[in-house]
């Protein structure tokens, strides 16, 4: 029987009691909160450097001490157990003080990405009912205080905390008080809210508990063989699940490694940091891996410390995968994961054939996998179908999204990933496509419906459908097919459309890359716009353009 919380507003669906017991008996869930990563880190690795960013470095002890001090400061502001706090930070060291301070008081960070703008942040505030928002003053030329000003009143935010010059807001520096004495201990509760790539108009928040997330971090550390000698370079945003926990920054801290934070993924900066700090591993999305491959051939920097490059978030082609080892003289690991839980890794000692051609196999022996056809029946190995999964670190429901959960999960608790995969006899997974209405733009996920709904408010647009179009570097980009309204005065160009959405406050990566005008949409027999057919049209068109 499902162990649902009996309230009007169901926050999240926990695992059933029998599974909880099994995971505890088997030592997967160890009754510890994520705060233990840093408290244990301080005990074991005390004065070792834990984090290096562009300006400063922190020892394990410093991070934990500062987190304890901040926890008191946060409490004095009124942030309590179970309060949601939107955290939107670039890759800076203070990030760790902040999240561990929140874990220490049992408050729940909502992991916004630096690219998010007012539309996204307002939605996160609305769903989570967060009263606090933590930002850095500026990053990559963008002033987050202006964003905070825009959303302050619509979101009823009480605390806007700024790392750097706070202007009229609360300065993070002012919140370091006497260290908190006792930390929050309920490991079965929600630790953090991750963001879903999204397939609907409204984004979904992903409730990860201390028990389940800590398990996924420990298991990832084991598989990726992180240890005290590892140096992890974080180039993707650290709040994203890949960089955060697969094994990512939390894995690095758990293993006693050192984290080097890069402000962006540029090869110039990354290669300099790899040489300077003798980086041993990093995690990349396919477009970055491809750019690094082309730069590596001509670099004068010494990259010989690298022993592992992980690539995930979107499909990495076998041709590109084959180049990693010869160019970087290190192992490649393909990672097929999702913020909802399931992580698949190729193993470090897998044969090349597996590493080049598959996206790995589930990380845990307790992960359950099904590949099903349109009728819900399991297909034979080697045949494509939708991937369903359940297990010790895959959620049972999105946060406060009851209705959506009825479709996103089966009645027996499997998560419908929306990914079309083939599973081979050895249990390795090859990602073939997806059934979800999403564009995977080099690892950044765009919900077609979200952008379509915003475009429908444009005066010249009567109807619109957004689909993925193939792209050599990004894998996919987005194309908006537009039907103009009868009274449209002029055809808006791609610049106008992007400007319109940007003005509304949509993150840049969600803006369409191309528009196509149409007088009538191809329809399915159910009377819906036939996106499959639109994808074929734009694929043909881009192919013809390439040939021309
Ligand atoms: C990671 O997480 P999300 O939540 O941003 O996106 C999950 C989705 C998957 O359902 C799949 O559609 C796609 O991203 N995906 C891949 C992939 N890795 C993720 N598609 C093809 N090949 C891959 N290797 O993207 C994520 C989370 C943790 C670790 C790694 C990636």
Strand content: 15-25%
Task: Name the structural class.
Answer: alpha/beta
Q: What is the CATH topology classification name of the domain at 59-185?
A: Rossmann fold
Number of helices: 17
Principal-axes geometry comes out as globular
Indicate the percent of residues in helices: 25-40%
Cα gyration radius (Å): 23 Å
- What is the CATH level 1 assignment of the domain at 59-185? Alpha Beta
Span of the ends, CA to CA: 61 Å
Write down how many β-strands occur, each being a DSSP E stretch of 2 or more residues: 27
Strand order of the largest sheet: 2-1-13-12-14-15-16-17-18
> Per CATH, which architecture of the domain at 59-185?
3-Layer(aba) Sandwich
Low-confidence stretches are 1-8
Identify the quaternary structure here.
Answer: single chain
Ligand inventory reads: 5'-O-[(R)-(benzoyloxy)(hydroxy)phosphoryl]adenosine
The major sheet is characterized as: 9 strands, mixed
**Global mean pLDDT:** 96
Explain how this protein is built:
This protein has 548 residues and is α/β, with parallel strands linked by helices. Among the domains are: 127 residues, Rossmann fold; 111 residues, GMP Synthetase, Chain A, domain 3. 32% of the residues lie in helices and 24% in strands. The chain contains 17 helices and 27 strands. The strands form 7 sheets. The chain has a 9-stranded mixed sheet with strand order 2-1-13-12-14-15-16-17-18, with helices on both faces. Helix 2 runs antiparallel to helix 3 and helix 7 crosses helix 9. The longest helix is centred in the N-terminal third of the chain and has 17 residues. The termini are far apart. 5'-O-[(R)-(benzoyloxy)(hydroxy)phosphoryl]adenosine binds next to helix 8, strand 16, strand 21 and strand 22.
């Amino acid at each position: 029987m499902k162990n649902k919380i009996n309230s009007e507003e169901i926050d999240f669906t926990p695992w059933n009691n029998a599974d909880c017991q099994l995971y505890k008996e088997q030592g997967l869930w160890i009754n510890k909160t994520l705060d233990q990563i840093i408290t244990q880190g301080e005990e074991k690795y005390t004065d070792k450097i834990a984090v290096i960013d562009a300006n400063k470095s922190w020892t394990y002890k410093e991070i934990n001490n500062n987190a304890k001090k901040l926890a008191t400061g946060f409490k004095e502001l009124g942030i309590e157990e179970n309060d949601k706090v939107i955290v939107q930070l670039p890759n800076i060291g203070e990030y760790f003080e902040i999240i561990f301070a929140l874990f220490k008081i049992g408050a729940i960070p909502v992991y916004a990405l630096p690219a998010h703008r007012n539309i996204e942040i307002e939605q996160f505030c609305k769903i989570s009912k967060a009263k606090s928002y933590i930002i850095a003053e500026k990053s990559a030329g963008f002033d987050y205080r202006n964003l905070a000003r825009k959303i302050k009143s619509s979101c009823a935010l009480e605390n806007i905390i700024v790392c750097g010059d706070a202007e009229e807001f609360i300065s993070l520096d002012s919140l370091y008080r006497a260290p908190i004495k006792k930390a929050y201990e309920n490991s079965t509760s929600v630790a953090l809210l991750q963001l879903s790539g999204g397939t609907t108009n409204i984004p979904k928040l992903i409730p990860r508990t201390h028990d389940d997330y800590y398990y996924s971090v420990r298991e990832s550390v084991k598989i990726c063989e992180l240890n005290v000698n590892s140096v992890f370079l974080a180039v993707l945003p650290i709040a994203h699940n890949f960089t955060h926990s697969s094994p990512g920054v939390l894995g690095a801290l758990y293993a006693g490694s050192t984290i080097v934070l890069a402000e962006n993924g540029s090869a110039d900066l990354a290669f300099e940091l790899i040489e300077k700090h003798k980086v041993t591993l990093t995690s990349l999305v396919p477009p970055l891996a491809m750019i690094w491959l082309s730069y590596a051939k001509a670099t004068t920097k010494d990259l010989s410390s690298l022993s592992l490059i992980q690539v995930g978030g979107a499909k990495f082609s076998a041709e590109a995968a084959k180049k990693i080892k010869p160019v970087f003289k290190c192992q490649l690991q393909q990672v097929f994961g999702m913020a909802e839980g399931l992580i698949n890794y190729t193993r470090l000692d897998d044969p090349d054939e597996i590493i080049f051609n598959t996206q790995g196999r589930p990380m845990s022996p307790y992960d359950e996998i099904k590949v099903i056809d349109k009728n819900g029946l399991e297909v034979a190995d080697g045949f494509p179908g939708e991937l369903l999964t359940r297990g010790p670190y895959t959620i049972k429901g999105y946060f406060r999204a009851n209705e959506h959960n009825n479709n996103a999960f089966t009645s027996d608790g499997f998560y419908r990933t929306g990914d079309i995969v083939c599973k081979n006899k050895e249990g390795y997974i090859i990602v073939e496509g997806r059934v979800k209405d999403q564009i995977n733009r080099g690892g950044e996920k765009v919900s077609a419906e979200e952008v379509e709904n915003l475009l429908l408010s444009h005066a010249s647009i009567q109807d619109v459908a957004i689909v993925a179009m193939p792209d050599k570097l990004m894998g996919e980009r987005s194309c908006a097919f537009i039907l103009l309204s009868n009274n449209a005065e002029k055809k808006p160009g791609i610049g106008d459309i992007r400007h319109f959405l940007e003005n509304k406050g949509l993150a840049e990566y969600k803006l369409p890359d191309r528009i196509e005008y149409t007088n009538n949409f191809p329809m399915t027999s159910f009377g819906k716009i036939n996106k499959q057919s639109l994808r074929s049209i734009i694929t043909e068109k881009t192919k013809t353009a390439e040939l021309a």
